[in-house]
Each structure stands twice: as structure tokens, then as C-alpha cells.
């Protein structure tokens, strides 16, 4: 029997949710692995983050952000909100904003029956604390308008300076030619009046 669109979507969401839950369990497992200390046996690697990269287990940055967030969140909360909201919660410096973000992530989980995706978690985090250098779309549009205005104003200033130079040049020519503003004709040489140099 051919699947309907809704059936495809339902199955896709179930698999997505399973992936997110598995990622959460995996990162929590890695924290236990690090705490065990066994990763240092026979390995000349300075940090667990480098160990993960060396063995192609996880990006060091992802793991370190996850661990940083665990300072503020218990494992039950992490399992509810998922790995992405957990990492972004750890990036929020304000304790009050972090708590509000986590409450929102928990409400999202209860409403949608699924943790936030990585993109959604990142977008939602910016409502509480924008990333450094981040600008919203309206701010980006305003910046483009400001840049264009500045560019055109620069063109106008350059044209005005050019006009001033041309006006000074015209004034100097008028001064040289007299008040009439007429160009005096250059005297023509009359070859018939000149002595013949061949004589």
C-alpha cells in the first residue's frame, strides 16, 4: 500500500526524534567515558576533546559546549530538552535568561512532543542573547540601506568638489579673457607679408 504524505511525515518525525534522543544519550555516555579516566590508558593525548577528534567520535566543540551546559542543567532536563537546546542554553551568560530559555525549550517539548532542532534552538537562543556580530533581518536591511546612503553621499561630496574645481577653472579663464567673457581671437600670421627666406 502506498504511503500518504502524512504517513511519510509521521515516520520522518519519529525517526528524527529517535536521532535526537540517541544524540542526547550518546553525549551523556561520553561524559561518563571521560569521567572514567580509561581514555588516558596508553594514549598520549592531552584532553578528552582531542581524544574524541582523534578517534572520530565527536567534534570537540560540541562536546565541550554540552559539558559546559551540564554545570547548569541536570541530566533529566537535558534529556527533555535535547542536545541542541542544552548546548545553546550553556552559551547564555545571564542566569535568568538561561532559565527562561530552558523553560521555553521544555514547553516546546511538551507542545510539539519533540525537542528543538539545532536550527530552532539556535534561533530561539538569539531572542535572549544575540550571538556576537549577529543581526536580525530587519537590522541587516537597515544596515544595507545605511551603507547605500553613505555610498551615495560620498558620490555627492565628490561631485560637489568636482563642480567647485570646474567653477574655479571657469572663473580663472574668465579673468584671463577679460570681463566680456569672449575668447580673444589669436592673430593670424600672414605668409604674404613675411619676407621670403629663400631670397
Descriptors:
about 200 residues, 2 domains, about 0% strand, about 70% helix, single chain, mainly alpha, 7 helices
* Spatial separation of the terminal alpha carbons: 119 Å
Low-confidence stretches: none
| Strand residue content | under 5%
Provide the structure class: mainly alpha
The helicity comes to: 55-70%
Order of helices and strands: HHHHHHH
Label the overall shape: elongated
User: What's the tally of helices?
Assistant: 7
User: Radius of gyration over alpha carbons?
Assistant: 37 Å
Mean pLDDT over the residues: 84
User: How many structural domains in the coordinates?
Assistant: 2
Biggest sheet descriptor: none
Question: How many strands appear in the DSSP assignment?
Answer: 0
Would you write up a description of this structure?
By secondary structure, this protein is an all-alpha fold. It is built from 7 helices and no strands. The chain has helices spanning 5-36, 48-54, 60-69, 75-91, 95-112, 118-128, 137-177. It is elongated. The termini are far apart.
Quick recap:
The chain is built from seven helices and no strands. The protein folds into two domains: 5-134, no CATH class; 137-175. 68% of the residues lie in helices and 0% in strands.
How are the secondary structure elements laid out?
Elements: H1 5-36, H2 48-54, H3 60-69, H4 75-91, H5 95-112, H6 118-128, H7 137-177
Helix pairs in contact: 1-4, 2-3, 3-4, 4-5, 4-6, 5-6
